[in-house]
């Protein structure tokens, strides 16, 4: 044979233990890892579809919806975004995207690949959109879909969703929300808020490994999908197929793709932990830890990128890199000395901020205190005065 087995595969892989305090992935609890050791089942075996049904119930709780179509795209958060765009949009459909960071930019990229007529309202990273601004834009652009990012993990901004649903209904618009970096860390009420499509990722607040994008479609959203003139261009992300595979449409399940069996076990376990804790407690834990982190950072003389606390998502804190500080030296100090990940900025916030994630299993006061301790040391290394004396 001309291609021999590679040398690198003769030794075991190297996987160090790291504390992942960036904007994702977050660490998974041991129970979730253990769930993945369970034996494989066929992706249409009744024991497995039973587990899928239980996952669906957990997701209905997480999304706060009674909607029929609640399932997962096999793929990470981006797969949820892709599924949103390819199912809701037909060529020349107008989509209005509220852009205040990288996720709105990516959404615009994806929507344009589906040949939608993409309209953007733009704000600087860290800003959010007010209801009157959104209403003015809905009036001007008359879109079929409005796309918002609840937790903009590139800037740390929290976009309020409450109140947007009724506006969208007034103008006959579907409301799609990216809740990848926020769901579970802050309140979200799909039905009460009138959200038509929402998706998230398993590896952020849910604290399962990256692998799936939980997604929900309202009846209004499904009506738009069913009224399409042309078929959905992605077979893999076709929500009508996914809904059937996940047992959401009342017809017998057909083979669409092989579900990621072990990942579904992990999600089932992670959701059972979310349910045992309860959403209110989960939200309160994120708020309390974020407050502790923000107070500690301020005590170190650091400034938060978003000055108004009401506009911050507790799940991702953005910290201004002070003048004269090499941000990368700091993130390297975290990793090299403590095997703790914090990250730099992304897209519009690149070079300007550090980002610290507080998500799910990792969102504890001990982890906050550890991040603060390392941050002080790292800044001291660069002779930055961190005490307020
Ligand atoms: C992480 C993230 C995504 C993308 O998720 P992947 O799992 O990396 O594909 C999308 N939107 C937001 C807001 C995110 O934070």
UniProtKB/TrEMBL annotation:
GO terms for cellular component: peroxisome. The modification N6-(pyridoxal phosphate)lysine is found at residue 204. Its cofactor is pyridoxal 5'-phosphate. GO terms for molecular function: alanine-glyoxylate transaminase activity; L-serine-pyruvate transaminase activity. The keyword Phosphoprotein does not apply. It comes from the Eukaryota. Residues 24-363 form the Aminotransferase class V domain. Signal peptide: none annotated. It catalyses: glyoxylate + L-alanine = glycine + pyruvate. Substrate binds at residue 355. GO terms for biological process: glycine biosynthetic process, by transamination of glyoxylate; glyoxylate catabolic process. Residues 1-32 are annotated as: Disordered. CDD domains: AGAT_like. Keywords: Aminotransferase, Pyridoxal phosphate, Transferase. Its EC number is 2.6.1.44. Belongs to the class-V pyridoxal-phosphate-dependent aminotransferase family. This is Alanine--glyoxylate aminotransferase. It comes from Scylla paramamosain (Mud crab).
């Amino acid at each position: 044979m001309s291609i021999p087995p590679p040398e690198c595969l003769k030794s075991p892989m190297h996987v160090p233990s790291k504390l992942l305090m960036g904007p994702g992935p977050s660490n998974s609890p041991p129970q979730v890892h253990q769930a993945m050791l369970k034996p494989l089942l066929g992706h249409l075996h009744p024991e497995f579809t039973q587990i899928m049904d239980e996952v669906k119930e957990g997701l209905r709780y997480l999304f706060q919806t009674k909607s029929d179509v609640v399932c997962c795209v096999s793929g990470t958060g981006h797969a949820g975004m892709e599924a949103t765009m390819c199912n809701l949009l037909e060529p020349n459909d107008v989509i209005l995207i509220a852009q205040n960071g990288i996720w709105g930019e990516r959404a615009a990229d994806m929507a344009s690949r589906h040949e939608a007529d993409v309209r953007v309202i733009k704000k600087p990273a860290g800003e959010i959109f007010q209801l009157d601004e959104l209403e003015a834009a809905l009036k001007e652009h008359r879109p079929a879909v409005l796309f918002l990012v609840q937790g903009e993990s590139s800037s740390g901004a929290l976009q309020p969703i409450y109140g947007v649903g009724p506006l969208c209904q007034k103008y006959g618009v579907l409301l799609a929300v990216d809740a990848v970096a926020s769901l579970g860390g802050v309140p979200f009420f799909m039905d009460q808020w009138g959200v038509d499509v929402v998706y998230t990722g398993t590896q952020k607040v849910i604290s399962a490994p990256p692998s799936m994008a939980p997604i929900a479609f309202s009846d209004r959203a499904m009506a738009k999908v069913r009224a399409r003139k042309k078929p959905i261009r992605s077979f893999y992300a076709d929500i009508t197929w996914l809904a059937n595979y996940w047992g959401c449409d009342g017809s017998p399940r057909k083979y669409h793709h092989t579900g990621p069996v072990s990942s579904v076990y992990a999600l089932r376990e992670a959701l059972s932990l979310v349910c045992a804790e309860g959403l209110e407690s989960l939200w309160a834990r994120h708020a309390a830890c974020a407050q502790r982190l923000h107070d500690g950072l301020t005590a170190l003389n650091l400034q938060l990128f978003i000055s108004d606390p009401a506009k911050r998502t507790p799940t991702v804190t953005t910290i201004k890199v002070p003048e004269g500080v090499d941000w990368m030296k700091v993130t390297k100090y975290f990793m090299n000395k403590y095997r703790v990940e914090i990250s730099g900025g992304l897209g519009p916030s690149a070079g300007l901020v550090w980002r610290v994630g507080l998500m799910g299993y990792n969102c504890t006061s001990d982890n906050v205190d550890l991040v603060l301790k390392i941050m002080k040391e790292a800044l001291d290394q660069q002779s930055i005065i961190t005490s307020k004396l």
